[in-house]
Amino acid sequence: MQKVVLCVVLFVAICELVAASSLALLSREERGAKKGKCSEWEFGECIPKKGTCGPGKKPGTRQGGCRNKQKMFKCQVPCAAETAVAIVDKNRKKMMKKKGCRYSKGPWSECDLTTNMMNRTLTLKKSNPDCEETRTVQKRCKKNKNKNKKRRCMYNKGDWSDCDPVTNTRNRTLTLKKGDSSCKAMQTRVKNCGRAKKGCRYSHTWSACDTTTMLKTKLDQLKPNSKDGCPATRARPAKTKKCKCKYGWKPFTKCDDNKKKTRTGILLEHTSDAGCPPTKDVTKDCRKARDICTFGPWGKFGPCENGVRTKIRTIVAGSDIPKCVKKSAKTKRCTRA
């Protein structure tokens, strides 16, 4: 029984394979019939991208069972006579190279401003009956080739003068050595003096502490190694800073009739600035005493009146203070039953 079942299964599988292969063959034949053969491309007129000449595109069409029957191809429309000359020269160069013609190159001529072209002559090196004895080659002029170069003015440089302590600058004179009439006969150069070569050097120090303003002022004093003629002091915007006077402070006194309290500071020995006063008094206003409210325990909420129930607590201290009176009562909403 099992053998019979296996034979049936194998027979069904073989039939399915045969059917699938026949369908594949049919599909291939149909594809070939649909595809067919393509004819050669037929091109239309070349249309330039800009103007009436230069690179562009031309349409192409073909017949048959092709997938792409229409397509655009790149093309070139010749612009002018010099383009044709360049193409002829290029083809002639290739032909001469094949024949073994070798030439010696002459110098390039000056740029022709009307055509923007320059040329040179080639002379045949070896005698060959198939080669031309002389040839002329042309090419476009390079940018800025016909522009005149800037004429340089050359000068003899003099020595630098001593540093001026007032302006902190030095100068030197340049005398014309070579150049045309547009160059100046003499020129003067000015530059700042270097740090190490400054004529006037100053040191910065702070003055003693002023006991009235408790401020110190910055002073600029001339250094001993400076040159003669420098001012003893330098005019600069005044800079000040607070004196560093350190004090040991006593506690504040009680408030007087004017509602003020005072405390005294004694100058410490390790303070950094000289000229600080030995003692210093500081006075400030007394703070207002805070309103103190003292309350008893809360009572129970009363009956509902006008949609509100109220509970009250007794005021032990501060009954004359409005804030305490406000805090002694509490309300909540209610609805009558």
Question: Quick summary of this structure?
Answer:
Helix content is about 20%, strand content about 35%. It is an alpha+beta fold and about 325 residues long.
Structural class: alpha+beta
Q: Spell out the helices and strands N to C.
A: HEEEEHEEEEEEEEEEEEEEHE
Task: Tell me the β content.
Answer: 25-35%
Low-confidence stretches: 25-34, 145-150
Number of DSSP-assigned strands: 19
N/C terminus separation: 95 Å
Approximately how much helix is present in the residues?
Answer: 10-25%
Instruction: Report Rg.
Output: 55 Å
The backbone outline, from C-alpha atoms, is: flat
Helix tally equals 3
Average of per-residue pLDDT values? 77
| Biggest beta sheet attributes | 4 strands, antiparallel
Structure overview:
The structure is a single chain. By secondary structure, this protein is an alpha+beta fold. The strands form six sheets. Strands 1, 2, 3 and 4 form a four-stranded antiparallel beta sheet that branches. The chain has a three-stranded antiparallel beta sheet with strand order 5-6-7, with no helix packed on it. The radius of gyration is 55 Å and the shape is flat. Mean pLDDT is 77; it is low at 25-34 and 145-150. The chain is 18% helix and 34% strand.
